Amino acid sequence: MDARTLDLLKQASTATISTQLLSRGLRNTFLHGVKPLTDRRMAGPAFTLRYIPAREDLDVLSVYQDYDHPQRKAVETVPEGHVLVMDCRGQGRAASAGAILAKRLEVRGAGGLVTDGTLRDTPAIETLDLPVYAQGASPLTNLAQHHAVDINVPIGCAEVAIYPGDILVGDGEGVVCVPQELATEVAEAAYEQERLEEWIAAEIATGKPLRGTYPPDRTTLERYHQQRTSG
Ligand SMILES: O=C([O-])CC(=O)C(=O)O
Ligand SMILES: [Mg+2]
Question: Which domain of life is it from (predicted)?
């Protein structure tokens, strides 16, 4: 993904982006219930990790002795700038990762960490530079409920389909998934929409009514374009 597209998406709000996706027919793109833990904007390609339900005979603490355990391997292989997205089936009784793994992602230059489950060590995670999004906190380690199986396959996260390489964008409201092939046109359109809406908000602040202003009618749009080309 080119740097300009990622840059534009990072500046745009998830509200604007979800409107742009809706206008292209995509309604289910926002990861409902997944909230920011750090105050960092995010835009990067998805690198996925899929969990299935844990089973007591397999998911025991000694599995962490294996450095190739898929959860650990995902953290060590996510490419720079990519967002590690975890499918926990929306289940949050046990955490999908903790502060040491999150720190490792930050140090390795990952673009972010997203889970539809929970995280542990959240007071430490909240101090990181990494964009992090989760449904909340749970101190139990992942294998109490989750078994990591696949890396970089299509997953569901908060009931949204996420394919490796789709662009995940995060702001203060949460995370939206932009299909890879739409990323560039959505980024450009989101930028234009936000410039126009900034201008409309200023008009509303001066006392203009909604009718004719929001959405803008032809006369208002003409005024916007005139002011934009003259200034
Ligand atoms: O067990 C885990 O999820 C890993 C953990 O606590 C950490 O990364 O600090
Ligand atoms: Mg920990």
Answer: Bacteria
Sequence letter at residue 211 = R
Cβ atoms of 84 and 112 closer than 8 Å = yes
Which ligand is closest in space to the CA of residue 138? 1
Share of the chain above pLDDT 90, in %: 98
> Tokens 């998911």 correspond to what residue?
59
Ligand located closest to 99 CA: 1
Q: Amino acid identity, residue 175?
A: V
Beta bridge partners of 119: 137
User: In ligand 1, which atom is closest to the CA atom of 95?
Assistant: 3
Atom of ligand 1 nearest to the CA of 96: 3
| Cα angle, residue 175 at apex, residues 169 and 178 outer, rounded to 5° | 50
pLDDT per residue over 52-99, tens digit each? 999 999 999 999 999 999 999 999 999 999 999 999 999 999 999 999
pLDDT in tens, 168-177: 999 999 999 9
39 alpha carbon to ligand 1 midpoint, in Å?
Answer: 21
Q: What is the pTM of this model?
A: 0.96
Neighbours of ion ligand 2 (CB under 5 A): 98, 121
Q: Which residues form ligand 1's pocket by a CB distance below 6 Å? A: 95, 97-101, 120-121, 141-142
Measured between alpha carbons, how far is 48 from 162 in angstroms, rounded to an integer?
8
